[in-house]
Design a protein that fits this description.
This protein has a six-stranded mixed barrel. Strands 1-2 form a two-stranded antiparallel ribbon. Strands 3-4 form a two-stranded antiparallel sheet. The protein has 221 residues and is an alpha+beta fold. The relative contact order is 0.16. The N and C termini lie far apart (70 Å). The chain has helices at residues 8-26, 143-146, 199-204; strands spanning 45-48, 51-54, 84-88, 91-95, 106-112, 138-142, 155-160, 165-174, 194-197, 213-220. The protein is 13% helix and 26% strand.
Length: 221
């Protein structure tokens, strides 16, 4: 008597069908995809009114794709371009309204700033209307990352290429649109990827302050 056999091709087809259905069932929805809970959406998206959308808490702009409109916390997926030009002291400086997308390791340029009264930071910090001593680990973020003050008082982690890292509190905005005036201590507008750190931040990272600008990465702490 012949035993019942199932063709190998049928078995493979069934297995592949199960894998595909499992993958579809567990895939996280992207922009405007249907969702039910906060964790249903992919990446930095959040469930809002039954659909996946940008998360205002982290300033993501994956769905809106803002590439130079009203400054947001994320920018436009690498499409953040100058929105104007500021002329001062015979030089031209690009003006931005956005910053690159924020991730778990956002590339940036670390610059040095004196947040104390009379320092090169100009007026008091925008977040708390106070000055900060050189011994405080504080930073100003480019306008897009500052995101209308939504990151005020929050801690970020900065990692230098020498492997050292530190945390710092966001206290100010590094203005992308305005500059060359008394309020900005005569400084031109910031670039759109700046983490402007205090003396204490540079020391914690073991960096030479005379260099002035160094590549780093940052994330929310």
């Amino acid at each position: 008597m012949m035993a019942n056999t199932i063709p190998i091709s049928f078995c493979l087809f069934t297995l592949i069908s199960i894998i595909i259905q499992f993958a579809i069932g567990n895939a996280q929805p992207s922009c405007n995809g249907l969702c039910q809970t906060l964790n249903d959406c992919a990446g930095q998206l959040i469930c809002s009114n039954g659909k996946c959308n940008d998360d205002p808490r982290v300033g993501s702009h994956v769905c809106s794709g803002s590439g130079g409109g009203s400054g947001g916390g994320g920018g436009g997926g690498g499409q953040c371009r100058p929105s104007g030009t500021l002329h001062c002291r015979g030089k031209s400086y690009p003006q931005y309204s956005c910053s690159p997308v924020v991730s778990s390791s956002t590339p940036a340029k670390l610059t040095l700033n004196d947040f104390s009264e009379g320092g090169d930071g100009g007026g008091p910090s925008e977040c708390d209307n106070k000055y900060h001593s050189k011994s405080e680990r504080v930073v100003a973020l480019s306008t897009g990352w500052y995101n209308g003050g939504s990151r005020c008082g929050k801690m970020i982690r900065i990692v230098a290429r020498n492997g050292r890292s530190t945390t710092a509190k966001v206290v100010d905005e590094c203005d992308l649109r305005n500059g060359c005036d008394k309020e900005h201590a005569g400084q031109p507008p910031c670039l759109n990827n700046i983490v402007d750190g205090s003396d204490a931040v540079w020391k914690a990272l073991g960096l030479d302050e005379d260099i002035g600008v160094v590549p780093v990465t940052w994330s929310m702490a």
